[in-house]
Amino acid sequence: MIDNIIHAAIVMTTPVLLAALGGLVNRVGGLVNIGLDSMMLAGALIGLMLASQTGSWPSALAGAALVGGLLGLLMSLCVTRLQADEIIVGLGFNIAVAGLVRFFLKSAYGSSGTLSLPDVARLPKIDIPGIADVPLLGAIVSGHDPLTWAAWILVPVTAWFLKETRAGLRLRAAGAAPQAARALGLSPLNIRDASTVFAGAMSGLAGAFLSIGVVGIFNEGITAGRGFIALAAFYFGRNRPWLTAACALLFGFFDAFQIRLQGRGVPAELVQTLPYAMVIVVLTAMALSARRRKLRGA
Amino acid sequence: MSVTRRFGSVVANDSIDFRAQRGTVHAIVGGNGAGKSTLMRILQGMDRPDEGVVLVDGFPTVFFGPADAFDRGIGMVHQEFMLVPGLSLLENLVLAHEPMLGLDRIDRTRALDAAHALEAQAGVTLDWDLAVEDAPVHVRQILEILRLLYRGADVLILDEPTAVLAPAQVRELIVLLRKLRDEGRTILFISHKLDEVLAVADDITVLRGGKVVGSLPAAQADKAKLAEMMIGEILARPQARPGAVGRPVLNLVSVTASDSRGRAGLSGFDLTVHAGEIVGIAGVAGNGQDELVAAVTGLSRTDCGSIRLGDVDVTRLSLRERRALGLAFLSPDRAGEGLCLQATIAENTISGHHRRDEFSAGGTLKRGVIARHVEALLDRYAVKRGSSTLPAASLSGGNQQRVAVARELYGNPNILVACQPTRGVDIRGIAFIHQCLLDYRDRGGAVLLVSEELDELVTLSDRIIVIYDGRVTGEVRRGSAEIDEIGRMMLGQAAA
Question: What is the pTM of this model?
C-alpha cells in the first residue's frame, strides 16, 4: 500500500518536475512562463500520435520536445521582439493551444476531447534487479521510466549549469540585469529566447510523459493544470532546483494520494481537487513559518 | 602618440570640440543641462552626433553601441552602476569575457588570478565571493573600474563618480585614477565638484548650455575662475524693494531628510519664510532642492526636525492636509505632477479646489458654477485656449504653466512653493508668471522659490538662500553687493 503510493507519487511528480525545471531556467533568464501548460498539452498530443505512428517512444519524445520548443520560441518572440506582456501572451497561448487541439481532434479524428490510438509505444519501465523487491527503496528507485530518471538527474545538472557554466552565468545576468548585460556586449533577448525554447521543450516532454507514460491515451484535459503547478513549484522553489523539485514532489504525493482515495465514497471531483488545495495549504504554511522565523530573527 | 577626440557641430551639444591627450585625466565640468550627459552618450555609442565626428587615435570613428565603443577601448562607469545583482563580484568581473574550462565551465581559478592581479594593480582588496548587492557602494564602483581594466579599456569615462562616495573614499578614488593615468590610460572625469576636479585633473573642459566655454590646463585654473565659467555672468541686478515682511508662514527647524538613494539629502536644515516675501533657493541641482520641496509639501517623510505652517506643526501631515492649511505647490514636473495632460483644461483648473462647498454639494460637482469660474479665471491669466473642454495637452507649455499658476494661486494660499516655475516657458510667459508671483507677494503672500535659473532667483527673490550638499551655505539679501558670491557659494565655498 505505502509502496504503491510512493511509486505513484514519483510517477505523478515527473511531469510537474520536468516543466518546473524548464520554467525555472526560463524565469532565471527573465521570463515568467505562464504558457507552460499549453506546451505540455501540445507535447502530449504529438507524443501520442508519434508513438502510435512510429512505434518508437524516443521519436515520440523528440517530437513532443520539438513542438514544445517551437511553441516556446513563438511565445518568446512575442514577448522579446514584439514587447507583448508575458502574462497576457502566456494566457493567450494556453487558451489558443487548447482551442486548436480541440479543433484538430474534431477535424482529424472526429473525436471530441479524447484520442485513443492503436499500437502506442509506451515508455518502458526500468526494473533494477535486486533492489526491486526491497520495501520502500524498491518503490523509490525501481520500475520507473527513462523520463523520470532524466527529470531527477536534471535537478543537480540544472543547479550545476546555473552555477558553474558560462551559459548559466550569462543566463542569470540576462535575467537579473538585461541593461547591464547588453552594455557588456551580451544579447539578453537571444538568451531569453533560448531559455524559453528550453522551457517549451521540457514542457513538451512533460506532456508526452502524461500521454505515453501514464495513461496511453490523450484527453484535452490531460494536463489538469500541471503547467500552473509547475509555475508554483519554481516560484516557491525560489529558482533553486532542489527546492523546486521538493515542491513538485509535494504535488506528486498528493496527486497519488488522491488517486488512492477515489472510489471510497467521497465524490471523485472533490477528491481530485485535493492535490491542488494541499499545495496551496502547504506552501502557505511554509511561507508563514518562514516569515515568522524571519521576524523572530530580526 | 595621442588620443584626440573632436566633436564638430554636434547639435544636441552645440559644436563641442575638445581633445583628451593619452595618459591624462581630463575633467569635464558643467552645471545641469550643460550637455555632459549627451556628450558621454555619444562617446559610448548610445547616441550619435548629427554632425561632426569623434576621432580615436586620429581616426574618425562611429560607435554602434556601448559594446562597440568598448571594443575600441572606451569604457564607462555609469552613475547607476551596470552590475548584475545576484552575481558575485567575481562573476560580475568576468561576465561576457569568462576564462573557460571544458564543458562550458568557467575557470574559477584563472578568474581569481586575474582578479588578484587587478587588485594588485589598483592597490585594493575585494571579497570576490560577495554578492554585488551586499557590497558597499564604493566597492561596486571599484569593481566597475576593475572590470573596465579586465576587459582592456584604455579610455575610462567616469560620470559623477564621487556623487556616491564619502570624502575618504573620494581620496582613494583619486589615488586610483592617478595611478591608472600614470600607466598610460586616459580618463574622462565628469563632475561639477570643483575641489575634486582640481585635485585629479590634468586638463579641464567647461561646458555650459551645450557649448564649450573653455578648455584649460588644471595648473592654470582655480575655483573662482571655473565657477565663473560654469555659472556665467549674472546679468540682472535686483531692485531694492521697500516693504515690511509679515509673520512667519513657513518654518523648518533642523530638518533632515534622505534622498531616494537613502543618503542624506537635507541635513539639519533651518528655514523661515515670512508673509510678503519671496525666498529663493539657489544651488547646483542635486544639492537638496528636491528633498527640501518634498519635505515642505509633504510628498516624502522627513527623518527628523519639524516643519510648521503658520502655527501648526505639519511635520506628519499629508500634502492634502497641508494644502488645507494654505499651502500651494507649483511642481517642477508639469507633465507628470503639475497637470494631468489627458484631463480637460477645466478639470485641471478646478482640481484641488473641487471639494470646496462653492464647487460641489453632497459629492456632486456643480458643473455650471465650475464652468463660469474656470472661464473667468483662465481669462484673468490670459490662457490661450480653444475650449476649456479640450485636454490640457492641447495647450502650449507656457499656457499649461499659466493654468497651473492660476490654479495654485486661486483661493489666496498662505504660501506658494514654486519649483522651476518658468521651466520650458517662453519669454512672454516668463514675464507674466514673474508678475503673478510678485503681485501675490505684494498681496501678502509668501513664496518659496526653487529655481535653477539664477537670473530668475535674482530678479524675484527678496532673500536668496544658497544650499550645497543639503546645507545652507549662505544667504544673500536683495540689493546686497554679495550677489556675485552666489556662484561661489553654490559650489560649496563659504562667502568671503
Answer: 0.69
